[in-house]
Design goal:
Strand content: 15-25%
Radius of gyration: 13 Å
Low-confidence stretches: none
Shape: globular
Number of helices: 4
Structural class: alpha/beta
């Protein structure tokens, strides 16, 4: 995982119409990731994934812990703007753009979309 980048493109994990299940899965994933010894180099958030870094995120505490452990969290500024999410509501990570996301992906040995 050391040189891996995770992509969060949904407000949760998986493909189901049950939002609570999607959010439960991403919460469990991040919890288990924190318990392990290997963390990804970065996590990129775009499209609906940017909702995970706001004050109302069900995984905000886990993301704060991941960031404290050195995981780079990159948030798409265009997505925030298009979704009307205020930069004041961003509680974790750095607001970047597609060049930052592309840089993280190209430097990674592996890219995983959640």
């Amino acid at each position: 995982m050391k040189n891996t980048v995770l992509l969060c493109t949904k407000f949760g994990m998986g493909q189901t119409d049950i939002a609570s299940l999607n959010q439960k899965l991403i919460s469990k994933y991040f919890s288990l990731l924190l318990e392990g010894n290997e963390l990804p180099a970065a996590i990129c958030f775009y499209t609906d994934g940017v909702k995970l870094i706001t004050s109302s995120s069900p995984v905000l505490e886990q993301l704060l812990q991941l960031e404290k452990k050195g995981v780079r969290l990159i948030i798409c500024s265009t997505c925030l703007d298009e979704m009307g999410i205020s930069r004041d509501d961003v509680k974790v990570g750095i607001i970047g753009g597609m060049p930052d996301i592309i840089e993280a992906q190209t430097k990674a040995d592996k890219v995983i979309t959640l």
